[in-house]
Amino acid sequence: MPRCSEATTAGACRAATSLTLVVALLGAGSAVAQTNPPAEETSCFCAPEPPKRSVPDYDGRGPAPMTFDDALPWIPHTLLLPVYVVSEYAIRQPLGATDTYVEENHLPTWFYNLFAFGPDHQFGIYPTFFFDFRVRPSVGLHFFWKNAFAAHNLLTTDVAYGGSNWAKVAIGDRYSFSATESLGLEVKWNRRPDTLYYGVGSQVTNTFISRVGSDVLSGRLTYDKVVDKSVDLEAIAVIQRMVFRDYTCCGDPSLEQRVEAGQLPAPPGYQINTTSLEVGFKAVLDTRLSHPDSHSGLRAAVGVGMAGDVVPGFDTSWARYGASLEGNFDVTGHSRVLSIGVTALFVDPLGHQPVAFTQLVTLGGVEPFAGFYPGFLRDRSALVAEVGWHWPVFAFLEGVAAVSFGNVFDAHLDNFSFELLRMSAVLGVRTAGLIPGGGFEFTVGLGTNTFRDGFGVASVRIAVGVVYGL
Does the pLDDT value for residue 433 go beyond 60? Predict the structure, then answer.
């Protein structure tokens, strides 16, 4: 086979070769091939194209040096590499695999069927548990009975145990007059030795962590009605008997020991058993109630309540009130929701006696300051702003990430200062609906000291469990 002549280009050679292959594939016919054999000159061997010539260094200065602008994109790439590795290989891929397994095997339905029984699953008993880093872990059972004694009636019973001097028993009964109106009654007894107390005020630290033991017996009556599909009205009446106990827990000194050692001042209401009665009212405007399929909307809530110790009378009484405003925006239209909100809470004495420390405004344990331990912050008022991000993880779990800034303050936010703000940050997953009146929660959070005190980490909180309610 002759080589290509110098006048023959590589492109022409490829074209000729391709034409020959096309003719063969089209089956031009063996007769054609025999009567008209291709000229020998049309077959040639094509040398490869020479490589591209590099750009000449005309000025002799070599390649341009890397500038700061060239290196700038690598800074966030490098800093965020650990975050990417964790989110990709420790969170996204395991959750994705779990999601696939759960949905393919219908685990939510299987779980519900395992613990619910009777016609239309009217009865059920579920195991419950809760673990929080700073308080006693507990295990228990949640029982429910739909249409108990009458149609549209729900009866629940909960029992839990958390070791020595830790026990809880609750019975709830809710009757629904319609889809928008209900009346509920709950009776609960709770004995525990591990209630946390750090002090009162904006600048408390975990230096003098202490424990408070108590027995609390309470009854709650709740009337709830939805008006105009977007306004939820709730009226409550609560009677509570609280008795302090000298229980000890968790290797920490009791509040009594701290006070006797002069490490903490005796808080208002210290060692005073109370029998309190409270009546309150709450109104919530939520535009999403009238559009169940929408995750975007505005939520505004106001609440007020008056309470007092029925034994000494009006002299030991107080009022609590507060408001919150929150906007929710489904950014992608697929349940990726950005929430921005602010909450203000207040409590004031109505008589001459100060408000007991057990009745003060408290932040910690739940939103909007879930990065702090329960009961970490107590005072007469609180102000918190929060930004959150919520997204579907899989069939029955929702992811949540939130950052909050705020603190507790003196009466009516009198000593409010930006230097006294703290931060709470949480990341976790949660659900509702697996268990009537409850759901699963897993939260990792942290809380900081104030800006004035250096903004260092004050608490690292890990909580996981199945919570329940009426």
Answer: no
